Amino acid sequence: MLQTNLTHITSEDQFNEIINNNENVMVCCGRMGPMCVPVYEIMEDLKGEYSNVKFADMEFDIPSAHIIRNLPECRTFTGLPFTVYYKDGKLVKATSSIQDMDQVTSIINNELLNQ
Amino acid sequence: MRDYNFDVIVLGGGPAGLTAGIYLSRAKVKSVILNEGTVGGQTVLTHEIANYPGIDSVNGFQLARTMKNQAIKFGCEVRGHLKITKVELNGDLKRIEVNNKETYTANAVIIASGGKSRTLNVPGENKFKGMGISYCATCDGDFFTGKDIIVVGGGNSALEEAVALTKYAKSVTIVHQFDNFQAFPHAVKEAQNNDKIKFIMESEITEFIGDEQLEKVKIENQRTKEISEMEIDGVFILIGYVPNTEMFEGIIELNESKEIITDKDLKTNIPGVFAAGDSVQKKYRQITTAVADGTIAALNSIKYINS
Fold first, then answer.
1. Residue of B139, B142, B179, B263 marked active site
2. E runs forming strands in B17-101
3. Residue A10 main-chain phi, psi, to 5 deg
4. CATH at residue B162
5. Do residues B142 and B220 share a domain?
6. Which residue in A68, B40, B88, B237 is deepest, having the highest Cβ count within 10 Å?
């Protein structure tokens, strides 16, 4: 289990339930490594500010994480974490490796909230 | 613009800043840590810390989180992932503007802004980050199993990580700008004795090329200026760190490496402004030295505000 204050996704069913039952979803799939931890922390910080976005994480090395690892949009990725953004159940953006606060909020505002 | 007043503001949330926060808040000094990135600084980049006295072995994330929780427990406010937009350090009341919408004031400031990974700053570097370019061998090494990769750098990190990456990669080519290494001799020897490692010396990568993913690099020989292309699956850039002191240029006295100049009490050239950790001019940059700096700066800032 990842040591974060985010919702932990541990199965494919839970992943599908979350992306289908929430309008805006950000899932960070990684390990407790140096490139991943900053992204989790940003998500924890943004939880209060973006109440209309569901923030979740998923361990990269559990079998169910193939649902993110094997996405066509992630096939060229070579850096953890893999971060995916869903709107109305559809993937709208995927990023590889560390992202900063500006990059994450820009994607949330532009791709999820259409601001 | 919202205003907040504290006794001491700490700029930076690495080991130096967090230690300062612990000492300040335990002394009942109203303090806040303002941090631009992830709280914990470069400590969170370390997978295993085995030389921190009193702890057998710990990963950097856990150590940083414990320090952060200690600071918060004693009453220090910790705010991360901020953008510091303006600093006014002259005068008795110091002002720090954050995100262009909040102002923090205090009678003393401790700068513990740390350092960040040095980048090559050449075309394609941003585009292929996570698509072939990595700054963390431990994190991303397994994506390059059976592949040909480059490690850029000539220090201990570069050579040690190059050796570690041979567990995954088919071949590792070290590209280094000088004709000799800055790493310790034992690290150089270990790399030279590894059959999977090749060396391209006196050379620099000048461009990363590819479509969706990194496919090749341009390499310039620094002596002959000859440019060649090399097909490659991945590049790990491990060329050290630079201090996060851009925002203090022209305000605080810096040396030629942009490190903050302090006296033995960690006072800068401005009264009431102290500095600690990796952004300070010093020889040894360790978590232990950062923690010592944070302690000294905190205690001297308390003395300053009480004087």
1. B139
2. 31-34, 77-79, 84-88, 94-98
3. -120, 0
4. 3.50.50.60
5. yes
6. B40
Name the CATH superfamily for A7-110: Glutaredoxin (3.40.30.10)
Alpha carbons A74 and A72: distance in angstroms, whole number? 5
Indicate if B265 belongs to the active site. no
Residue B123 lies in a domain: no
What pLDDT score does B291 carry? 98
The ipTM value here is 0.75
Q: Within a domain: residue B74?
A: yes
Whether residue A77 contacts residue A28, with contact meaning beta carbons closer than 8 Å, is answered with: no
**For residue A39, is pLDDT > 90?**
yes
Structure tokens at B166: 């041979």
Tokens of B41: 């600084």
Assign B44 a pLDDT band (cuts: 50, 70, 90).
confident
Indicate the Cα dihedral angle B156, B162, B166, B169, nearest 10°: 160
Q: Is B136 a catalytic residue?
A: yes
DSSP letter at B267? B
Q: What angle do CA A108, A113, A114 make, to 5 degrees?
A: 105
Q: Domain coordinates of chain A in residue numbers?
A: 7-110
Strand order in the sheet with B2-5: B2-5, B102-106, B94-98, B84-88
- Give percent above pLDDT 70 in chain B: 100
Domain count, chain B: 2
Shortest CA distance to A55 belongs to which of A64, A45, A65, A63?
A45
Taking the Cβ of residue B130 and every Cβ of chain A, the question of whether any pair is shorter than 8 Å is answered with yes
A-interface mutation test, from B35, B117, B140, most A Cβ less than 10 A away: B140
Which range marks the domain in which residue B214 is found? 133-237
B109 and B155 share a domain? no
B19 vs B51, residue with greater confidence: B19
Based on the domain organization, do B227 and B246 belong to the same domain? no
- Considering only residues 203 to 232 of chain B, which have any Cβ-Cβ distance to chain A shorter than 8 Å? 212-213
- Contact residues, chain B, for A32 at CB < 8 Å: 59, 61
Is A45 in the B-facing interface, judged by CB distances under 8 Å? yes
Does A5 reach chain B within 8 Å, measured CB to CB?
no
pTM of the predicted model as reported, rounded to 2 decimal places: 0.80
B179 assigned to active site = no
Amino acid at position B192, single letter:
Q
